[in-house]
Amino acid sequence: GSLTFRIEEPAQDPAWLGGTAAPLARAEGLLGALVIGEQNAALPTLAAGAELRFLLDRLPPHRAVYVFENDLRSVAAVLRCSDYARDIARGRVIFVPPADEPGFLEHQLSAHPGLLPPGLIICLPQVSQTRLEQVRTFCANCASAVSAARARRLQELAAAPPATPAATRPPRLAVLALQLDPAAQHAARALEDAARKLDWPLLLDIVAGPQDVHPLVHAERLASFAPNLIVSVGHPFELPLRAWATVCEWHLRSDQVAKAADNSALKLGASPHVSDLLRRECRAGTRVFDWYWGCQPCDPTAPPKDVVLLVGDLPDDDPARAGIEQPSHVLLWNSAQRCAAQLWFKGELISASIVLKRAESAVGLSLPPGETRAALLRAIERTLIPATLLRTIRQALSSGAFGFGTIGHGWTPRANSEREAIAFCSIWDFMSQAKPYRPIAAVFLGIDDPLSPALVQAGALGWPLLLYGSGPASLSAGLSPIFRAADYRTFNDPRSLALALQDYRRDPGHTLARAGKTAQQLSARHSYTQRLRQLGDLLP
User: Fold this and answer.
1) Which domain holds residue 406?
2) Where residue 251 sits, what CATH number does that domain have?
3) CB of 355 within 8 A of CB of 385?
4) Segment 21-36, tens digit of pLDDT
């Protein structure tokens, strides 16, 4: 339920705020199937506030809701029932004053060049068709005018003569992370911290909210800062801006390589796997530089704790969310989940092609070569296998005599599990807690790419590392630029995982001392300050 008002005016029948005694149920019924897409929404009435809360809970943090409400008493009533202070402060809720709705929209979008105009008008049954058309006209006219003005300004920035080149020492660094990618934003903030330690002039530009979405705001920031070194984290550099700057595109994962822009930017690979793909996929003459994940040095002497942490994002492998809809394909998907688990328990090689072949044999279906089969193989590789293995590994950990926990998105702690530690969304969330500790082991999957930012940071924290793989030789190509074979141990089935954990727990002092040496080596040679110095040496 939710707090609301029942209004009893003199000589009138009682009425509920917004016309309903069950605002949350009505909001879910009206908006549950709504698809908003990549645009801001507009509510033509505030009603009882439930529709606004429903939208805010489901929209990503860089999307806003414009609220058109003529009855200021309703606004006051809703704000007394629900707390929207944080959403208003972050620009996620924008109340449009009824006195001058077009003028307010024009002023708001001029003052915030990164804010998008309302693009989807939410049709609610209690709003008249005349009012809906009025709001729709306001929004359409505003969007047209703002789009034209912003396009003109972008053309001006692109045509302006470049600023006089600044001195290259120290570099003027601009770090851009303009997509809602947690790994990219964490990496951008790590570069910010490293640049400040080096005393480099810095612009950190990330999408933090609705006022950071349109490209114009980022182009304006770059033009004002005038960098001579730009690092675009996790996406191509596509801002229409002329500058005397060395532009670097830092590709973090293999799925970003296909989106690499065909431009003169220096392509940076965050791992050997990504660098190899860049050299193979980009056109001849493209400059590729190995710029691997680094770490933020920290004290690797936190107190030990008899806890094993499983590190990795848990994908949602529900067939519908993975794009698997045909009944025969769902049948194959469910069979593939069972086959992947069986391969894990047997310690056999797990790959998308092997899993699909076994699934086809088990259900008596066979997909012919083509795009459908290729798409299914990609989904098995990126979603099904990691999800299946992570869940089976957590099941194996839950049967041990030690505490265990998870680090990554997608996890929820099990109910009534006294030994399960709290779940953290990322290793950086873990580091921010009041009393950090060192687990007896940190378990990593790393099927697509063994080198990850969490792995490097875990090593710098002095955590003993356990990696999925058939042996050090199978991982050395992807890890050897950062880790030595003695820095980690491998497992490939429940038995080898149990044996490794047993060895780690048998002599925790030796285990943690060895992990401490790994931490010292990583902090000395692979910090983000070292990474930035490497880039600075490339400047003319």
Assistant:
1) 304-528
2) 3.40.50
3) yes
4) 445 655 565 565 566 7
Q: Longest C-alpha distance within the chain, in Å?
A: 85
Residues 238 and 91 in one domain: no
Asked if the structure places residue 111 within a domain, the reply is yes
End-to-end CA, the chain: 63
pLDDT digits (tens, 9 = 90+) for 336-377: 999 999 999 999 888 899 999 999 999 998 999 999 999 999
Cα gap 235→232, rounded to integer Å: 6
Residues 112 and 213 in one domain: no
Same domain, 317 and 214: no
Helices 215-225, 129-159: crossing angle, 10 deg rounding: 30
Residues 260 and 397 in one domain: no
- The torsion angles phi and psi of 360, rounded to 5 degrees, stand at -60, -45
Angstrom distance (rounded) from CA 345 to CA 397: 14
Take residue 336 and report the two structure tokens written for it: 């593939």
Is-cis flag, bond preceding 413, omega within 30? no
pTM, entire model? 0.86
Same domain as 182, residue 145: no
More confident position, 451 or 448 = 451
Q: Are 388 and 322 in contact (CB under 8 A)?
A: no
Strands (E), 337-456: 403-407, 438-444
The residue behind tokens 């790393």 is: 446
Question: Do strands 6-7 and 15-16 pair parallel, antiparallel, or not at all (unpaired)?
Answer: antiparallel
Percent of the chain at pLDDT > 90 equals: 55
Q: Cα–Cα–Cα angle for 529, 535, 540, nearest 5°? A: 140
98 with 31, same domain: the answer is yes
Number of domains in the chain: 3
Rounded Cα distance between 203 and 191, Å, is 11
Q: Given the structure tokens 């980022």, which residue do they identify?
A: 218
DSSP SS3 for 176: strand
End position of a domain, from candidates 291, 316, 346: 291
Are residues 485 and 472 in contact, defined by beta-carbon separation less than 8 angstroms?
A: yes
